[in-house]
Amino acid sequence: MHRTRRLLPRARRTGRHPRPALRPAAFAVTLALLAACAACGNSGGGDGGSKADAKGGDGRGDGWHLTWSDEFKGARGTPPDPRKWVHDTGGEPQWGNQEWQYYTDRTGNAALDGKGRLVLTARRERLPGMSNCRYGTCDITSGRLTTKGKFAQAYGRFEARIRVPEGRATLPAFWMMGDNDEEKPWPGNGEIDAMEVVGGEPGTVYGTVHGPGYADEGLGGSHELPDGERYADGFHTYGVEWTKNRVTWTVDGTAYHSDRRARHDRKHPWIFDHPFYLLLNLAVGGVWPGPVTSSTHLPARMTVDWVRVHERS
Q1: Helix/strand/coil (H, E, C) string of 281-311?
Q2: pLDDT at residue 41 greater than cutoff 60
Q3: pLDDT for 27
Q4: How would you classify the pairing of strands 102-103 and 140-142?
Q5: 243-278 pLDDT, tens per residue?
Q6: Cα torsion at 132, 136, 141, 147 (round to 10°)?
């Protein structure tokens, strides 16, 4: 089973380089994106609404067509479709963020709920093989799924409708890695993070790209909900639209940041011209989002309504 290895912690997760705030220039770019964006309709938060109502659809009539999806249909307690997903398993030092969780392939950590959703669950439990953990307390399990070897695509619209968990020490993510990582290890293969919501910042979503010269800190932006709202309070649709010249991040159909080929140079090369595969995971602890404490609620659940990939017709 392939396991992505990030051998160096990202600097943005150590506190040396915190996630970028929207400086005035970046804020102006964001406003321009909001004005120009022709993204699809809003899926909104909350638990209500059908899958057809949620943003995404099959792409017919808007210049997109569906190339891959998972609607997570199946009986309660069954594992995710093995024709589409594989499990990454094990603990640190594989993940490079001093994380506390140990990923398993058990349905206790990744299973369908019988209502058309996938649930990744972080639990406090100790299993055989979890002793002598490099970080943490050796008693937290979780789930991490990837389409490595099953599906990869270059360019398109990549979206997932997700309800993230509560908890200061949780870090749910929907992201992509370059599928040439056997020949070019991270960061040479490239990484596109469509969604990260760190538990200590429950109203903020981050979108980032990583590559040579910008491996640790990355290049990206963020979007904050108004009036103290939290992403854990409901489902939201997180996505990227990726072309030959730009990656644009969206939440609920609204663009909030864009990274352009033109801003890259020889020291910070654009390496996003080959297929990437998908990942979903629920991390716990680490230098970002921080250690598990008595206020960390476990079990914690990341619930995924659907994942859909489109390309231009």
Answers
A1: EEEECCCCCCCCCCCCCCCEEEEEEEEEEEE
A2: no
A3: 36
A4: parallel
A5: 999 999 999 999 999 999 999 999 999 999 999 999
A6: -100
Q: Return the closest-CA partner of residue 195 out of 226, 229, 235.
A: 235
Evaluate the omega torsion of the peptide bond into residue 93 and state whether it is cis, within 30 degrees of 0.
yes
pTM for the predicted model, two decimal places: 0.85
Query: Which residues are identified as catalytic?
Result: 191, 196
Condensed to tens digits (0 to 9), the pLDDT of residues 112-160 reads 999 999 999 999 999 998 888 889 999 999 999 999 999 999 999 999 9
Q: Beta strands 204-210 and 219-224: pairing type?
A: antiparallel
Tokens read off for 201: 């910042």
Helices (H), 224-288: none
User: Using an 8 Å Cβ cutoff, are 93 and 123 in contact?
Assistant: no
Whole-number Å distance between alpha carbons of 85 and 101: 20
User: Which of 176, 158, 146 is CA-nearest to residue 271?
Assistant: 176
- The mean-pLDDT minimum among 14-23, 94-103, 172-181 falls in 14-23
Report residue 311 as tokens.
């390309």
How far is 22 from 27, CA to CA, in rounded Å? 5
- β strands within the chain, DSSP E: 64-70, 86-87, 102-103, 110-112, 118-124, 140-142, 144-146, 156-163, 170-178, 191-196, 204-210, 219-224, 236-242, 246-251, 254-260, 276-284, 300-312
Per the CB < 8 A criterion, the answer to whether 172 and 101 are in contact is: no
Are 87 and 104 in contact by the 8 Å Cβ rule? The answer is: yes
Alpha carbon distance 238, 30 (integer Å): 16
What's the CA gap between 13 and 11, in Å, rounded? 5
- Do 274 and 161 contact (CB within 8 A), yes or no? no
Report the C-alpha dihedral over residues 123, 129, 131, 137, rounded to 10 degrees. -10
DSSP state at residue 116: S
